[in-house]
Specification:
505 residues; mainly alpha; globular; transmembrane helix; membrane; transmembrane; DUF2029 domain-containing protein
């Protein structure tokens, strides 16, 4: 039984419902398993649970790698830009595959063949290198990028475990953190199956945070200790620029640690040393970015370079966002003018310039709040949670959104277990995990419900409603139960229990 009388459409819509129901079931099982690990698992069961977690992640990952179906053609976009650089020696920031490689098969199946690259140079270099090895046939890339996604997924799981263990968490908490990432259905769906470069970017961010924690133990304010972490984090930014908040918070924490806030009197603070450290770190970031872009910028004027950042569709268009909802609403009402309150709001929300101002405002406010938190507590907790919170807020206001962007949040969310958790931190963790489920609603097609032009609005508000509601409820519950430990904050309890067991032996 199908939902329409047109066979191709019926098959598509039926398949759409089936995959969403299967993913919903996967998230239910994921939630029940997480509950079992937190509430029911005995200490002696933890190693077995972690062993089966690894087996599950590898087996599920391989199944997704070998699945013939695709939810997104991004891996062919990566391959086409790589072919543009590797095979044709063209500049992906100032030319398009359609202009240079019109006859190549990759260009014909690339949905972005008429757009310049929106990705950073680190990813362009990687894609170009793969092109030199595997040529321009699409089939090898179908598996290469998927295997890369699986490899990064497994490496991310390992890095999360290492970070939690390095910060002194118990084996139970280490297992919880690894599980929340490794078997999250979104991560498997968008990593080994979707092969999105967001997973690769997350690998660099996690490794960068791992190096930050190591540097913090040796003396975070010394260049010789923090430069490896900054280099790796910079490489992550040069995959996708959306991770730039990590660099801002790195500089804020570095400055505050150098000043000795909040315990050192203001007049006694080493302001010169703090400014020097920030300038050196900022220059290192800028220098790496410039060196990475320089081969592509040679021969182009400053105006061309600035304009190149605005040419990709993601810099000027809208997808799965409030801006897109407003655009669709106005399309249904072509006579709507901006002289009324509703019309003015709709036209403003449908304007990319308005959202660019919102993005700048949000970034400015979050950096100011981050500076205040860094001043009060210049710690790795501020660096990690501040970066995660800022990237979360960016996704809430971005005009261009796809479900795989939530990969950034799910990769960093388990790191909150490495630090003492307040109400906001617990709410942020829950928000990210629920968002990983609700974001998949971007794949939902409501045509068979005959909602007409309103289906995007329904999808968008459902997608945002559940994580926001879950985060608010967790925060309010924390206020009502101040004296109780949160279920996910098992680290300190486990550590005491394990230490007591060791002492007894």
């Amino acid at each position: 039984m199908h939902f329409t009388h047109s066979d191709p459409v019926a098959l598509y819509l039926t398949g759409n419902i089936e995959i969403l129901l299967l993913l919903a079931m996967a998230f239910v099982l994921y939630g029940l398993a997480a509950y079992f690990i937190v509430k029911r698992a005995q200490p002696e069961q933890v190693p077995t649970i972690r062993r089966w977690m690894w087996i599950g992640a590898i087996v599920a990952g391989l199944i997704f790698v070998l699945t013939p179906g695709m939810a997104s053609k991004d891996l062919f976009v990566y391959a086409d830009y790589g072919n543009l650089v590797g095979a044709h020696g063209a500049n992906p920031y100032f030319t398009t595959p359609r202009q240079v490689a019109f006859d190549d098969l990759l260009t014909h199946i690339d949905g972005w063949s008429e757009a310049s690259s929106a990705y950073g140079p680190v990813w362009v270099y990687l894609a170009g290198s793969l092109s030199l090895i595997f040529g321009d046939h699409p089939l090898p890339y179908f598996y290469i990028y998927r295997f890369l996604g699986l490899a990064c997924h497994l490496l991310n799981t390992f890095l999360i475990g290492r970070i939690l263990r390095t910060t002194g968490r118990s084996e139970r908490t280490v297992t919880i953190g690894m599980f929340l990432y490794a078997l999250n259905p979104l991560m498997l769906f968008e990593g080994p199956l979707g092969a999105h470069n967001d997973v690769f970017m997350s690998t660099l961010l996690l490794y960068g945070f791992d190096l930050c924690i190591t540097a913090n133990k040796r003396g975070f304010t010394q260049v010789k200790n923090y430069w490896p972490a900054l280099v790796v984090l910079t490489l992550g930014v040069l995959v996708k620029f959306t991770s730039i908040p990590v660099i801002f918070f790195f500089l804020l924490v570095l400055a505050a640690k150098t000043l000795g806030t909040p315990h050192t009197p203001v007049r006694e603070m080493p302001w010169f040393a703090a400014i020097k450290n920030v300038v050196i770190a900022g220059a290192l970031f800028a220098g790496i970015a410039l060196l990475a872009y320089l081969p592509f910028w040679i021969g182009h004027g400053l105006g061309e370079i600035v304009r190149s950042f605005g040419t990709p569709p993601s810099s000027s268009g809208a997808q799965n966002s409030l801006m897109r909802v407003a655009m669709n609403w106005l399309q249904l009402r072509p006579t709507m003018k901006s002289n009324s309150l509703v019309g003015f709001a709709a036209h403003a929300l449908a304007n990319r310039g308005f959202w660019s101002k919102v993005d700048i405002l949000v970034m400015g406010v979050t950096i100011l709040v981050g500076a205040w938190y860094a001043w009060r507590s210049p710690s790795m907790r501020t660096l990690v949670i501040g970066s995660l919170a800022t990237m979360t807020i960016i996704l809430l206001v971005t005009p261009w959104f796809y479900s795989w962007y939530v990969v950034w949040l799910v990769a960093l969310a388990p790191l909150t277990l490495a630090f003492p958790q307040g109400r906001l931190t617990r709410a942020l963790l829950v928000f990210c995990l629920v968002f990983s489920a609700s974001s998949l609603l971007t794949y939902m097609n409501l045509v068979f419900f005959r909602f007409g032009g309103y289906q995007l609005g329904i999808r968008y508000f459902l997608m945002m409603l559940f994580p926001v509601l879950a985060g608010v409820l967790v925060y309010l519950y924390g206020r009502l139960k101040k004296d109780k430990e949160p279920a996910l904050n098992a680290a300190s309890v486990d550590m005491v229990t394990e230490n007591a067991s060791v002492a007894a032996k």
